[in-house]
Predict the 3D structure of the following.
Amino acid sequence: MYYAHTAPAAHDWQPLHDHLRAVAALAAERAAKFGAAKPAALAGLLHDLGKYTAAFQQRLSGSTTKVDHSTAGAQEVLRLATTGADRMMAELVAYAIAGHHGGMPDREAETSSLTERLTKALDAPDPVWRTELFPDASGLMPEFRWDRDPGILAFQLSLLGRMLFSCLVDADFRDTESHYAQVSGHKVDREWPRLPDIVVELIRRFDDHMASKRAVAEPTEVNRLREEILNHVRGRAGIEPGLMTLTVPTGGGKTLASLAFALEHARHHALDRIIYAIPFTSVIDQTARIFRDVLGPDLVLEHHSAIEASAEFVREGAEKLRLAMEDWAAPIVVTTNVQLFESLFSNRPARCRKLHNLARSVIVLDEAQTIPLHLLRPAVAAIAELARNYGTTIVLCTATQPALASPEFKGGLSFQTTSELAPNPIRLYEALKRAVVLHGGEMSDDDLVAELARTPQALVIVNSRAHALALFRKAASKLDGVVHLTTRQYAMHRQSILADVKNRLQKGLPCRLIATSLVEAGVDLDFPRVWRAEAGLDQIAQAAGRCNREGRRPLQSSVVTVFRPAEFRSPREIEMLAGNFRDISRRHEDLLTPEALRDYFLDVYWRSGDTLDEKRILEAFRVDATGTDFAYRSVAERFRMIESGLVPVIVAESGTARDALISLSAPDAHSGAIARRLQPFTVQVPPRARTLLEARGDVRFAEEPRFGDQFAVLTNGGLYHRDVGLLWDEPQYLEIDDLII
């Protein structure tokens, strides 16, 4: 008898053929949603083929000799399928099997390539495996809509390979987890209710929530338009799954409208889940809280963390269970763009495990225009393929819709003519126009302070933390009611600051808020005047959404002044976008119209050219008559949505943060789960600054022998100030901090 996993008692060891059959069945079930059950099942049957050797069985009995048990299945699947489309699919299965512990490899590389492993000499598995598994390597190619363009075809196949990998590693984890849970007598509660089974009830809860809002809402024109938008969007729910846009001006209620559409659309087409992807961690908590208030506290999975788990590889046996990985099986998932897109281009089991659950889902991309320019083409390719072959509906939801439609955008999205969900975006813009944009020219900090002296309630948005800090200090020394908001403050602190700001605004108290661009994302503030440092037109439009948001003031007195900072240079990326903004300003009198925004984005994309795939992601996947040449590992290393190079410092002022840190000392501590608890209490700083803080004894690493530098904790509370957040006293570190919001 050959075994897959051990247990304290010999009679509880898991037979290898039981594990392989179970993983095959689970993988096939996951891949059936996109028509790839057969190759997924084959991957499951063969993934641990190398365990049919005496050397591996001896390892289960205590031998310390390492055994490569993943490569045998990769080699065997290519012996089973030798010609045509089945051979192509067998290569995808080989990538998945070879990578199911250490990560999907590159086809060609100096070390650990798939080619190297396919030619590696191995102990032959006991032939008994054939009589126990009966693998079928025929009819593996799913009936996809394959593109004739070789580049697009290669990308389609590469994503399919990653999806098969997702099905395999999730199935492997689930069966391994089930085995150890059964042995220990521990019940694992991982199951979520299926969205098709509860969606009618969720729609009822949504309706009840909206009814309660209407009962207390003022009968304003803005609220009437929000209701019109909501009803119109819900009425579009029967549209066929695919690519859609929801273009609603800031303050038009797009968050709840998009949730309503997602629920109704999922009900109409029996889709499996709703995934809401948000570009900013500063907003995700707020959105998740709204969804819990509307739908209930136990149905929303919130997945994000600025503190990544340090484990890079999947270990064997019960150690797998210590890795805190999400499979996104919840009916409602609120996550970040970083989690979504970096997972789509990852090679790691932990990141890829969730991917198969993107199939037959509704994915709402909130603030869709914020996908980083240097990765825009590969990100758009992934969006297009999910909609094309995985039954997924993608909603690009924003007030400033990016111009991503083909053929104007090379490799762009193919929208249907009926894909816009909002009622006439041009009319909505005119109806919801609540502010005017004026050019202020160059303004010094003294000029801004003088303007603030004449304006008791005002918002100033600048392009860096360093500028925000300097301007705040100057204004606070001369004026009252000055408030500072940047990512120098940890998220929970920012929430309390925003609550105070809203209270000041409502009571008519002096409130002069100086902030970075984080205030433009999903923050419901209503100022009579706004000053915005030059940036991209989409950011200007977002800033305008904080001026006269509820439409209670006259339009002409609700002014957004765009200025060029005199003392502080903008980061290079923002300066480039500001140049595009200035060009559009010369061509459009009203800068916030949908036409002006469309022209702005087309200009940005044209000028960006090849840098829209700066890391050459799409070129890393090639296919020809000889087979595939996919660089999964290299692409995973290059695809980074945030390249600031910043590192986290935990500010443990609260009991919640201190309790989370204490829990790290528990023998069974799950670093990923604790990291998520600590996320609201972290500040991102330059690495050199954290190194300096550590050298001075102002930062220590909690449980360093176990977790390395994963949990950097501020020990000098005097460096964190309630008005401005985390500071360190060397000027050179303030300068390098200038690049982050």
User: Anything to note?
Assistant: DSSP finds 28 helices and 22 strands in the chain. Residues 205 and 211 are 10 Å apart (CA to CA).
